[in-house]
Amino acid sequence: LSNTIAAPVYGRLGDAFGRRRLMLAALALFIVASLGCAAANSMMTLVAARVAQGFGGGGLFVLSQALIGESVPPRQRGHFQGYLATMIVCGSTFGPIAGGFLTEWFGWRSVFLVNLPLGLLGMLLVLRLPKGTRHSERLSFDGIGLILLSACVTALLMAFEFAQHLDPGMLPVMLALAAVAGLSGVLLVRQERRARAPLIPIGLIRQPAIWRCCCMSALAGASLVSMVTFLPIYLQVAHGASPAETGFLMLPLTAGVGCGSFTFGRSISWTGRTAILPSCALLVTFTTLVLLGIFSPRMTPWQVTCLLGFGGFFQGSAMPVAQVTVQMVAGPRMLGVGAGAMQLARSIGSAFGVALVGAVLFGVLAATDSETAALFAGMVREGPAAMGHMPPLRAAIVQGEIANAFRAVFLTVSVFSCCISALAWTLPVRRLAV
Asked: How far, in Å, CA of 6 to CA of 374, rounded?
């Protein structure tokens, strides 16, 4: 949550006071907060340090994007965006594995201590960058906008979090949080229109290329995060995969997205073309997901995950194109604001995607078998162990029902891919300048 809220703040401040300088500050905060996490002797201290770590980490992605736009010519940005997207996907894939290894062999504090040398290396690399242009000596900070943004994002993400638990009793709380998010959002838009230096400039966001790219980012996050969230449950329950086997079975999807981001990022640099790449590529992803929606109950786990990996390769085209397009349209003065808007959209889209896919899956199960739906809600909270000592015959029935219900998951995610393709096709920026 703190990571999400911090993204537009870093973007705005970086545009005003220098992105290189602010990146060093974000890295310093991240390192100090990581040390605080490692030294924590109570849960409250650990939570407070994690919040501070989130505020530091919130600037890393946004400012790294902006620094690429500041330091690299437009035609070459896709090349570096591909590298960056690949690193992000690889980190998401192997980070939990590395964390488990460190925790088992060196204790949980080592998970935070390992950030210290990495953070210091990052600072040394940032110091090697040329000093960028400072576009403003003084900035009237939009404090009211920050408060409204925090209220809106906090309420919205909490509502999505409760929705992921699939508990009908939480519906009134979710509706109340949604109302708070809606009211805060309306007031935020009003404030940003009046502010001298808005955190989220409405005029920029309203540009066709910008809002389309933000929607592409949100849908790309929704696709990947919802699959990473629910696919392990599918593999363990429907196919009986062990946790270790599930980790290996997830590799084709994440590796496919990473390789696709790298390949399509380089394609942008080679050809200069942007919109046509995800317009066509996401149709391939859409087709693979529809095939899974039809045939997945008759497929082996490796067939499912390899087909997802094939579709994930083409899904990797979305983010590099969206990022370089936003950088080109935002221009040198608002690179950070554009990157912050993209990160905010991706975070909210990821939470929304998981909540929507979970609701669809729960709804299909409830229409099929209310007992299985209740059991699945327990699996979301506790994992496949919620099946407990269920009789073999009943367990087989539950496995079959969940496997069939996951058809709806694949079809829902296919709609995300289709929407990304449509948004990319209508992008006004079709080709990058040299």
From this structure: 37
Measured CA to CA, the distance from residue 369 to residue 82 in angstroms comes to 44
CA 359 to chain centre: 19
Q: In 272-391, which ranges are continuous DSSP H helix?
A: 276-295, 301-315, 318-330, 335-368, 370-382
pLDDT of residue 380: 65
**Given its phi and psi angles, is residue 429 left (phi above 0), alpha (psi -120 to 50 degrees) or beta?**
beta
Q: Which two tokens stand for residue 417?
A: 């891919």
Alpha carbon distances (Å) from 109 to 2, 50, 118, 138: 21, 13, 15, 40
- Could you tell me if 384 and 236 are in contact, meaning their C-beta atoms sit under 8 angstroms apart? yes
DSSP string, 170-215: GHHHHHHHHHHHHHHHHHHHHHHHH-SS-SS-HHHHTSHHHHHHHH
How far is residue 174 from each of residues 156, 169, 356, 368, measured CA to CA in Å?
A: 9, 10, 13, 25
The region, left, alpha or beta by phi > 0 then psi within -120 to 50, assigned to residue 42 is: beta
pLDDT on residue 293: 92
Residue 167 CB coordination number (10 Å): 16
Backbone phi, then psi, for 146, in 5-degree steps?
-65, -40
Adjacent-strand bridge partners of 431 = 273
Q: In whole angstroms, give the CA distance from residue 288 to residue 405.
A: 17
pTM for the model: 0.85
Nearest Cα neighbor of 142 from 272, 13, 283 is 13
Residue 242, helix vs strand vs coil = coil
Which of helix, strand or coil describes residue 136?
Answer: coil
DSSP string, 368-432: H-HHHHHHHHHHHHH-GGGGTT--HHHHHHHHHHHHHHHHHHHHHHHHHHHHHHHHHHT-S--B-
pLDDT digits (tens, 9 = 90+) for 158-203: 888 777 666 677 788 888 988 999 999 999 899 888 888 788 888 8
- Tell me which residue of 366, 352, 345, 340 sits closest to 415, measured CA to CA: 352
Rg, Å, the chain Cα set: 22
Please give the DSSP secondary-structure letter assigned to residue 42.
S
Residue type, 84: L
| H or E element that contains 85 | helix 74-106
Residue 4 pairs in a beta bridge with none
